[in-house]
Amino acid sequence: MRPRTSRRSSEPLPPAPTRPAPPAPAALRWLVPCVAVGVALLIALPAVLAFDRGFTADAIMQNEPALDPSHLELAIDLVILDAVVWHAIDVVLSVWFVVKTLQGRHWARVALTAYLVIATAGSLYSAASGTQFLWAVVPSDAIHVVMLALLWVPRSVRDFFTAHRARSAVPTGTGPRAAGEAGTG
């Protein structure tokens, strides 16, 4: 693609001025402390499982009373590994989606919404595994609901994403055809 030029000169034109991106509204910036608390909880649960193996063993035996005691240590290790891997993925995704959402990326807003719904369902699964996980599940789910509300309810947030979509849209009536630089067809 060749650069835009003036009709009178072959000198390239300076880039078209762009409007600065609107700043994220205050309601959307509340996602940052919410995700910080969520990340702390995501780190805390695997840490508790790893450092309090008795707690982890009790949780496993409560859900699998027929488990052969000779397999308990392996089960503990697998539960800890599972929690570390899934929670690490959760931390990366939640932080990345929040950063991109604050930059006005509509896809990130939708992806963060889907992530929060799936994460809430996953935490409800943890709650069904036993009351010993409620200390992490209840605040996590409360944060998820608050974040979902912050993403979609405030008018300022909806206006922010509308402005970003309008800013990134290619304006009609510009380009080579509109300037008469291209042939017909």
Can you describe what's shown?
This protein is mainly alpha-helical and 185 residues long. The chain has one domain (26-163). It is 66% helix and 0% strand. The chain has seven helices and no strands. The protein has helices at 26-29, 31-51, 53-63, 72-102, 106-128, 134-152, 155-168. It is elongated. Mean pLDDT is 87; it is low at 178-185.
Overall mean pLDDT stands at: 87
Q: How would you describe the oligomerization state of the chains in this entry?
A: single chain
Count the E strands.
Answer: 0
Measured on Cα atoms, how large is the radius of gyration? 25 Å
Secondary structural class? mainly alpha
Distance from first to last alpha carbon? 18 Å
The number of distinct helices, counting runs of at least 4 residues, comes to: 7
- Helix and strand sequence: HHHHHHH
Bulk shape:
elongated
Main β-sheet description: none
Low-confidence stretches: 178-185
**Secondary structure: helix percent:** 55-70%
User: Can you tell me the number of structural domains?
Assistant: 1
- What is the strand content? under 5%
Transmembrane segments: 30-51, 74-99, 106-127, 133-153
Region (Disordered): 1-22
Keywords: Membrane, Transmembrane, Transmembrane helix
Biased composition (Pro residues): 12-22
Walk me through the topology.
Elements: H1 26-29, H2 31-51, H3 53-63, H4 72-102, H5 106-128, H6 134-152, H7 155-168
Helix pairs in contact: 2-4, 2-6, 3-4, 4-5, 5-6
In a few lines, what is going on in this structure?
The chain crosses the membrane at residues 30-51, 74-99, 106-127, 133-153. α2 (31-51) runs antiparallel to α4 and α3 (53-63) packs across α4. The chain has helices at residues 26-29, 31-51, 53-63, 72-102, 106-128, 134-152, 155-168.
